[in-house]
Records
---
Amino acid sequence: MRLYQGIRSLILTFFRKILFLWVRTDVSGNSADALGLSSERPVCYVLQYSSLSSRLVLEQEVIRAQLPGATTSLPVKNGPSHSFFFLYQRIGGLFRKRQPPVPTAEFQALVRYGLENPEQDVQIVPVSLFWGRSPDKEKSLVKLLLSDTWSVAGRLQKFLIILVHGRNTYVQFNKPLSLKQVIDEYRHSEERANRKLARILRTHFRKVRQAVLGPDLSHRRTLVQGLLRTQSVKDAINTAAAKEDIAPEKVRARAYKYADEIAANMSIVTIRVLEVVLAWLWNRIYKGITVNNIRVVKESAQNNAVVYVPCHRSHIDYLLLSYVLYKNGLMPPHIAAGINLNMPIVGPILRRCGAFFMRRSFRDNPLYATVFNEYLHVMFSRGYSVEYFVEGGRSRTGRMLQPRPGMLSMTVRSFLRDHHKPIVFVPVYIGYEKVMEGRSYLGELRGKKKQKESVFGLAKTARKLSNSFGRVAVNFGEAIHLSEVLDDVHGSWRDEAYDSEYRPAWLNNAVSELSLRVASNINAAVAVNPVGMIATVLLGAERLAMDEGQLIRLADQYADLLKAYPYAETVTLPEGTGKDWVAYCESMGLISRQPQKLGDIIGLEGSNAILATYYRNNIQHLFALPSLVASLFENKSSLARDKIVYLASVAYPYLQSELFLKYPPGEAEAVINQWIDVLVDQGLLVTLDNERIAHPEEGTEAMLRLKVLSRFIIQTVERYHIVLGILRKYGPAKITAMELEEQSTLLAERMSILFGLNAPEFFDKSLFRNFIANMQKNGVITTDDNGLLCYGEGLDEVADDARLVLSVEKRQAIQQVTMLGV
């Protein structure tokens, strides 16, 4: 028997060596740490269907990764000399009718072992294997036959699949199951124990296949024609025909043109080719891509229609996220792209990579709006993953922009119509150390008109490919279940009937709540990098320059501040120390060095000084509350603790709205108190008697740290004070919201010139608009019948308190314009 097993092992090893002369694998989860395996319990690996080739690939990857169980046998009586088994074996073959698969003898023996040895446990690791990853959508019968899809391949088909797709094989190891826990309740029924374990494994394999391959796809032409047969599109066609007094056939042709313009044409072949191209591209322009918290996506994709909602910093975002998902064994999403990207050459490629195109505005085109809504509804109801940017456009300042409600509203309405398939939003933070469009953003912030995308513009961008843009981080945030948001906003939403046109009264509240959670969760997954840390510290210096040793110490100390009170578990911090970060930023050409005998001086010069605000703004929300507390000591040596909490709490709702801070207003006081304690522990504040808090002594290192920290946020608070100063200048019922916004922008621009502020967002009109809207929302100001702003004495008190954060020079600058003592 031992001789037979030895010969059999040699033969299988020979076959494995032959197979891997051709096969190339991409493997996920193949480490003991990732799987959480215990060394005290036996491990065995299970594949869904019996297949010699799959068994050989699995054995090779277990040995290659040095996983436990590679050379051990199944813990069953007279078991095989390996730790692999199959859930099902096929009955039938080339010349016999194929029968439904049945559980293998090894599977049944393992269950029997668990029942007979209740004190023993076995770790069962499910392993999914895909020979190529193609959805069930191909024009060619040959391609359909040779794609690893939802159907079970026969021996001849499997041989051809390996021949065609063997060099694109994907293997995914998944978290182990406990045999003891699964079968414990069926100790007296082997048959029921078999059925339960088989059902759990079968469900697991189906979910993984759903996540990796995506749902079965229909042909694009069939999908487009199907949209025109939906009742809502038919009604829209008839309405447009009657309104324009033209034949319905002409309107129907227009609707078909809209649907054809919108619909994606995802091609796995294009994705595979692009994977190779993008791998080359990333290696050429970036120093690496770091992916964090991918587990959230893999879990969400197995049971839900996933909506990826990344922040939008660069055109690279589209490609980068799809690449990361595909490399981690997930089907790339269908991506909502602006119609401006539907350019010659580029547009068809993006469409075949999953992009569906949408016009910037279709409020005045109800037929287009209906076709687009129906297309999106098909995506969600069939379980496709979708990606769109809630900000609408790219952020030119590095901050999260105010979410636009359009796509979110369409998603909610689609879910209300048909919610049998749960929808989960997965926030994604994409962090660049050096954004490719940085220089063009500078021009736009200075008033230069945004250039329209074109093939020639892309060709010019291609010249930058020899540059290094540092590392990129892709962080996945905490998932948001749409049903839970709706439960919080309108608990009885499941009891109402919805159609394609129905917009419940509470829809706007639901969309607003959803947009706030999405933006907050994106910011809560921020990747802090060396560039952001050094830019933040240098921008806190009065002259944008600092002694190198001092810069290194401050960078380390502010990093320690983030560790002392972590903002969220999904936030990632840079490796290394301040010294490493300074050297890295210098190698990237983002900071300058001036040699000096008493110590080199590091600074920001020219366009780098303005560009640094972009990278500072990426992480500004992390420092918002401690910086706000620090700013209150700009003109006061000490304050009562409850006064600090009160003032910071008054400002918090506006900071939360602008920076998308994750804490609800009701939690603000507790968080502020916690930050006061942290600042005291770090030596930035001092506790006095009678519950008073003071700043450190002037001229000390601690006082310098506090002053620099306060400058991280002080420009935002100054902007608020500009609005209050102008509003009080005119008095109640004397100025409209639009006029207040315009005059505040002009004054901020004037102060930016006078004081050399290098933050273009300081006079960003949209930020003033948002602050004024939030004051109206919070009841601080109201609007009369003539559209004029009114306020009470409470606003004067807030304005007086705001003086604490303003320097004498800036108070005088505001006073000269408003002619009001502040």
---
Amino acid sequence: MFQKDWFNVKSKATFATVLQKVTVLILLHLFLLGAGSSLAQKCNLSLRGKILHQENDNPIEAAYVMVMETRTGAASDANGNFIIRDLCPGTYTITVQYIGHKEIRTTLELTGSSINQTFRMMEESIGLEGVDVHGHRESVQTTTAVTSLYGETLLESRGESLGESLKRVAGVTTFSTGSTISKPVIHGLHSNRIMILNNGIRLEGQQWGAEHAPEIDPFLADEITVIKGAETVRFGPEAMGGVILVNPPSLPTSKQNQTDIHLLGGTNSRMGNISAAYTGGSEKIKGLGYRVQGSAKRAGNVRTPNYYQANTGMAEYNFSGSVGYSSQKLGAELYYSFFNTEIGILRDSHTGNLSDLQEIINNGEPFIKPDFTYEINNPKQVVSHHLAKVKTHYHLSPEWKINFQYGFQLNQRQEFDRRRGELNSRPSLDLELFTNTLDLFVDHTRKNTWSGSIGVNVIQQANSNVPGTGVTPLIPNYDMVNAGIYAMEKYLKGPLELEGGLRYDFRTVSAARFVGNELQEADLDYQNFSAFFGGRYQLSPYFSFTSNLGTAWRPPNINELFSQGLHHGAAAVEIGDPNMVSENSLKWVNGLEYESKKALIELTAYANRINNYIYLNPTGETFVSLRGTFNVYEYLQADAFFYGVDLSGSYSFTDQFSGYLKGSIIRARNIEENNYFPFIPSDRMDWGLSYQFGNKAQPNANRITLSNLLVAEQTREPDFDLAPAPPAYALFNLGYQRKIQLGDNSLNVGLQVTNLFNTEFKEYMNRFRYFTADMGRNLLIKLNYQF
């Protein structure tokens, strides 16, 4: 109980007020620190920038940038970024070196302001053994808010779903159905408003359902990037809320090999997880590389602090493989991934009659409290996803490159309900979604000043209900075609970076289904323009400012138009509206960043006006059938205004002792009704302290971290909900990470305890909060061996 008293849950306005004041004080302190530093030294200019591959704009890690006159320099990080501080005004000779690439030597003049410079390096054919040159990899350079998970941070997240991993990013939460199904939420938006790219291919699954998690294995990635702006110009209508890039490791183009093995175990649900990956390069064919990867996961009933949840086990089996070739002129890649999962749905979410439904909501926890088991029964869902792509690029000249990419996807979703007799073995929802995507675009770079692209994108989809379910399909069969053309341009000069873009999309949808003996058909067309303009300016050696203003749109999805029945996996009746129109938004994102040798602070503020925002609203009515009693939801539209603040930062008190802070505040108002929308994340703050034993440069470094997550009560509820929002909660987590060097190989050992004090809590963004508490204490043991 001390967690709730300490957090003061009775004060509903305290959390947001405290976080706002903390933000102001931190920024004021950093401003005075930066101003003081500038006054204390005359040589206060800096050179910062990014090192990229000329052939594909991928970041280069460990390139060295040298200022010849001062003999000072810096190496680029995993994102290609570097910074050299404490430079005096004057003219300098700059060299950029990276093994296997041509040296860059240029002259830059620093006057009264710092410079932000991008260097693109060209591969050079040299006969050295052990040169680590990598092939094509998808990356996005943008002036909007971007955060990446890689290295140790990504290693710590291994074994979690994609949605859970991304909660490490400020402003990103999850919309979940129990403890095993979660999908990412960026600035209050989720599902078809968030685009996920699997190795450059937009993931197309049945993501319209609240319990439809992304069909992707996080183990295939060595970097996961979150773009928190409207990116419809780059990717199309489904990117109006943000983009998530899941990037596998780059393929080698020289003789080398590496094996990665992950072994994980968890006490809660007695989870076991294994993943293995092998990467190799050809000795005979320079530029040829390949990678294979697979994983398996098994878990049983989830346990809250006081009881097991019935039928909450899961099983997952995944595979991915790729082969690629890269040279100075030509690059090509073949890629395939397979995702398969079986997930049990909390049995108590499917009630038998109206009185049972009311009683379990009033009770707040399940009446059925079984022992532990791995067995998965109905209700459940079985999902498989195939993705294949072929991509090639060709350099027309050192400045111009043409790119072609084709992707094919097959998504198969089956949802099973508790039914009588022979029907129990049949799925109640059985869908197959075929998707073909085609991208053709041209990139150009003009030395280090101009870069951009122009291209076309075509998407074709066919979704069908597989016969034999014995029920009227929730959504009709449909065919969809979307075609878009776009152009983007970026300008970089000194401390200033500007970019802009324009896109036009046209979409046609044809739907048909039988309701009884009556054939219902619909043919719909949608079209719209989207545009953005953004910039970044280096205010001083320590401060930088970014701003991005973009329009976006999204046509209504098929379920929002035509849902008319029981959605078994969600345990709810959903009613669509065929007269819905497209959503249109205008989002403005501003960011202020402070970076010094010891501190990194990022503040992001945004405002998003969405006309005709589509949301699923509880009606308060129930539907009674032979299969049980279910709440009724309907899709509605209203003008919305989303706005909020994200704050993240870290500070190194000493070489061994450091801390971090992440927080987010979001508000989402229904402008037409002057009330609030359902399922909007509440205010939250995550902070922690880490101690590094020894030195990071030591081969056997180890680190311990204690963190605390504070989540406020959601007081901005819609006019009607099935139950009041749960109270605020505070969770403590403990982590230990050790890296052991074994010759040329390395062993990473991790120990994590989530919900350290086994606190009982309910998350407002969990759809099953009406029926049960969230997961209790969980001890995770993680082993990673690289050789």
---
Amino acid sequence: MSTDTGSHAGDRTVDLDIDRVIGPETFRLLALCCVLVMTASYVSVLREVTRVVGGTHSLFALVAVMLATATILSWAIRPRTATVGAIVACIFGFAYYLEISGVGAGVMLSASDAILSDTLSLIAGLPLIRMVEAGVWTLAYAPAPVFLSWYLAMRGRYSLSVVPGGLALGFLVLTGDAGTTITLVGTLAGIGAVGFGELERRDGSVAQADLIAVLFAIIIVLSLSVTFVPGDSGPTSSVSGSSPGTLEGAIDSAADRSAIGGSVELSPEVRFTVQSEQESYWRTGVYDRFTGDEWIRTGEPQNYDGAIDSPPGEYDRVRQLVTAETDLGVMPMAPQPLALEGDLSQHAEVTRHGQVHPTTPILEGDSYAVESAVVDPEPNELRTAGTDYPDPLIENFDYLQTPEGTSNEFEERTAEITADADNPYDTAVAIESHLRSSKGYSLDVDRPDGNVAEEFLFEMDEGYCVYFATTMVQMLRAEDVPARYVTGYTGGQQVDDDEYVVRGTDAHAWVEVYFPDHGWVSFEPTPGDSRDSVHADHVEQAREDGIDNVDTEDSEDEPLPEADREDENEDGSESDGQSDGSDDGTDSERDDDPNENDDSESNGNDSQRESENGSTDTVGEQHAGEGSEDDGWRSYLALPTVSRETATIGLIALVGLVASVHRTGATSRVRREIGLYWQRSGDDPDRDVERAYRRLERVLAREYRPRERSESPRQYLDALASDPERTIDPRVKTVTNRYERAIYGGGVTRADADDAIEIVDALARERLPVIGRRQTERDPEP
């Protein structure tokens, strides 16, 4: 007994030593660190936005100023005054950004409508990265929660300090900008601030850390078990049968984004037909904000109300009738659309860039009529267009945006390429010619890390339309020329004087440049190479393989345009439409514009792959039926993959479960329950008998009542047996007698101890009343 007491005293000494090391001051430091981590979580989301649109240095400066101010004022002003100060900080945030950006605080009032509109759109679920005034709004958003959170934390009001930070992070979760990892980190930090703050306030010890772990797990699991983040309500801009692995599936994979991927395939299946008096590129998407690895369409679309803004200068009106040959999530049409006719006009919306999108999927067989304004000025007119761009074009759109951190080398190289250009048109032609002549065309590329435009200009030798168009837009913007990235399809196969069949092989991306008094003019930086011949080979091979939907009734008997050109190649003439780079900005270069040049997304590299494989795979059929039996077994035996986020959540839940079990004493109860039915013999017989008797008391307490502290063991048994209808099981008295000898007498032998253990084991396992039968034999140990 004395040894056991000493052991417990030693444990308490260790606990006291730990408490002296991890005391209130330590818990305060941990709580403050948690508040800083929570602040960093939502600031990191804002930093991702400023990385794209600019203002990261201003963001960090604002956060630092707010933290310093809150520290200084934490004990100088009251919380109510601090709340008012946070609002003032928000206002100063707007003014600070506008001043350092060179715009001036006076613009803040004129920009208030746009900022308010953006904020309301955010509440409705618009991602922050798609906001028109993303930079201004982001820098105005940060100061208030940063200041108020840190002020309250410095005053020891930890529970209140997580409220402004939690609201700031929660709002970014609702907009879809804060991912699961950031949300987890911020939430854990908030809970940690509250938990450690409570430990500081209550002079808690490290032994209460299990309570913090339980709170962490419960709140995290509950917060992530319900999906409440609104998604994009717009339709998915995809084509039936396409996938992210195809070019068209990549460039129009979402309603507001255009991806930049790696290797892609082409599908020869017919997507739509067009009846038009003039051939054109058929545009499906316009994007203005470049993140470095994808394109974003800013702003919210408006329902089509019967009219779309027309270009500022002269243009020709062209009417088209588009018929879907498969389900579509886009509305191809010649730029720039002016009006939409047909039943689908009731289910269409117009982006702020003037492109029409369907609000519901277009089904196979649906058709719609479009009237477009075709802008086709002479090169000399574009050279003299000047740079007097409309203010809304520059102030409210991202047509001059480049990601923050764009290298000086990129800008210097662009300046070298355009050194001889003295106007935006010649600048565009110089960049277009350089890309067409210096880069090869291939669909088989590895997607680079970092800024795609820089990587393509400096590191890559070949790519496809997405890379050429992206790089040209960014180079133009580096020269302060408004430009944007557009997606859609090339003209397709002409099957009649005014009818075109457009396939998946015609998916494309190109560039539009703005010229005052003219509007948006298309440029084609992607080299033609052997596109026509490869396009024909691709479709012809699909026809031979019997692939469905490769032709319409009008196109199946029509020779493909490349057939004659292949004959010419046999005579030694060239079919390559790529510029040789020798042009110097003359009118001939504009002859390569998208309305006249039928570049598609294929070339000799694809032809080579086809000849090696012997056939052309299509989406949904690629590698069908291929693979060995071993591949099948590997697929069958493959273990399911678990994402890092899922594993993190699972780990948190497991830690919380273990902590809750420890906190509630469940482990001790389980151990005691198991110990009720089984006892291991020790080295001390007296100690073993004592433990056996304690188990016996628990058996009796379960059947009748616990022993009172004032009762001796013998008095306890006499009280239980006071009912004349009951007598005491002799085995109970045997264990009690041996307990008395072990505690108060001369001790017991090893055999007596083992016998007492076996008796209690039997009584517990029988789970029968140990009292209730009259004893007819004499107690073996009176």
---
Amino acid sequence: MVTKTKTSTNTQSSTKNKTQSITVAEISQRIEHHLKFTLDEQINVDQKPAYWRATSLALNDIIVEKLQNTKARQQQSEVKSVNYLSLEYLMGRLLSNNLHNLGLYTNTEKALKTMGFELADLCEQGADLALGNGGLGRLAACFLDSLATLDYSAMGYGVHYQHGLFKQSFADGQQIETPDMWREFGSPWEICRPESSQTIPLYGHIEEVAQANGTIKSVWHAGKTLKGVPWDVPIVGYNSDTVNALRLWECRADNAFDWDTFNHGDYLQAHQQQVAAETVSKVLYPNDEHEAGKELRFVQQYFFCACSVQDIIARFENQYGALAEQSHWQTFCEKVAIQLNDTHPTIAILELMRTLIDNHNVDWDNAWAICQKVFAYTNHTLLPEALEKWSVALFQRVLPRHLSILYRINEAFLNDDVNALWPNNDDMRARLSLIEEGHEPKVRMAHLCVVTAHRVNGVAQIHSDLVKQDLFPEFDQLWPTKLTNVTNGITPRRWLKACNPLLANLLDSTINADWAKDLNRLSELKHLADNADFQQQFMAIKQQNKIALTKEIKKLTGITVSPDAIFDVQIKRLHEYKRQHLNLLHIISLYRQLLANPELDMQPRVFIFGAKAAPGYKLAKEIIYATNKVAEKINNDIRIQDKLKVVFLPNYRVSLAEKIIPAADVSEQISTAGKEASGTGNMKLALNGAVTIGTLDGANIEIAEEVGDDNIFIFGLTVDEVKALDAQDYNSYQYYQNNAEIRACLDWLDTDYFTPGNPGELSSIKESFLAGGDPYKVLADFQSYADAQLALDKAYRNPSQWAKMAILNTALMGKFNSDRSIEDYVQNIWHLTVSK
């Protein structure tokens, strides 16, 4: 045997997390208390939801006490705090993760066994807190976990969406969207904080009022107000005494309803204000293809930012006193950091300026200096369509005061900063202006972030380099030290310890350290990568996880798959640049080859997809439809002898990812080089022993550097080669004409083979490649991708070689820990200290 007994340095014997001393009997008593007095349930009731809720409430009692102690400790030590503003948080389910972080999983498991329940079953109860869309929201959740784990003072801010994104199902292969009722009957994890509610003004007009000293003061007369009610979700640090909070804002009308109108019998009209207000926090990313949707989305962002800024100030004043004294603003800069997670929270800059000037009588220069000191900005994309721009007309209508402040910031920036480096250069002024002129003038939100923030970071080294070279080269010339890099990371607590307990137990018994708090300790596995006994243990766990996933696939889709096949996984938001349609094109090619030669020498393969398409994203929905129709044909074709299966799992979310990732053999990270900022799914899959097939894009580059060329399958164009193709006026038709396999596969989509009786239903995919110009170079990368897949197939059929590759991927993921990311932010951007 290669495993060894855990030493006293391991998690279970650590003394820092005092909750680990809570006994099985105490946990049982707490659960029974909530069953009887909170839920009014008899203890012998055989009902999983009741026991899940009682267990969650019992745990939350412990968590809230730790939250209160954390607040007191942080206030007493007067440490600097970071306020993380993000429109997305993909929190997932919290019971298992919180139990692991508190060190109470084993004792709670024992307590529930005495009651006749399996904790693993109860952890499946309850809805995901799915308050996000993809990697951006999951990254934010990982960062909050790490901030608490590392004992930093932090508050996350977001929106208390009633429905989050949407719940996805399929009808004849088409995506169907329905509301996600994540808290239909409340959530045991959240705490309403009505005492911290905020009143938020919008619309109206500005009045210029002469002051006694001869100056002019702008007074905003709002035409409407909204009420922001905060709900706090405690964030539990792992093996730590710290519990921070995620504060989510729910929008309500300032008045519940019109009593007079109600009494006159117009019941619907009486509730109009409340209905309109509730719409603001109804869903994540309301469809903005129409003007009403654009305005709702804009109001949602402002509401979230304004509530958060006012709350940050209120919390500061509660600790340090009213900000009437000018000296207190210096303290504010020393004690408060605000991180903007992408451009969605940009209006927070203008809101803080407005609040300082209008409400606290801070002069312009000092207000601007304060904003520059407290704000930092994370850029997550190079895609022009994702860099938000709002029409000046919309700004003028909804936020007239903020627009006037924006104009003044822009004027000072162009006259002072731009003109100093490029005097009398109108072209450069137009390029860098916060206002994009044209038929419909627009506000460039990313420009405002860069001009204001004292640090701007990308999220992988290649991405940060491209931010400097391609996205903001002039800003980099203006401020050579402002643009920097912080490579993303993931929390190993959720993405290995909680979601893959079999592997976590093996690591616990192999590594003489708490690897979940120091992920670099996984490197100790390197010397075991060639050990036949350890390889057998590692791959046996992978096989058990695959068997568990086959059952989940059968339950969700009715499709039977073999755990002996390669499980090839692509799970991420559906977008052309992520190139799910490259994967699909290769699947069609494999199917063609199998039909031509059913005895084709290939390892059986199951391609597993999980993705949601934005409701207004037509081509993304058509890619889902095409994948499902191709899957339907392949999965029912007995001629290919089950050598190929395709599964598109519905309603991809955190809790589903937790089941897929431990079972994955192959991680598909196939975005067009230069388009994926970082990725975090690539890290999660590799950490759990999946081998990556990917392009030199985002964090794939850094993963390749860590694991070595022999343990990853890299293919396709580089960033420079993509640029060169664009410069040569890329012609996708050439690939179609010169590659017989590409031509045959695309032409097949024009027939009714996959859609009997409906020829051409899948032609939109072909059209996107040809008439659409193939903007993401799918056809250019197809042959390289197919060749890499052949090499992958060959490697998998050498069990010892594959096991070594899988082990090394787990062993060498230490860099991609969100704890390391947070320490990078702390050292280079936020300058926090730990609360004692």
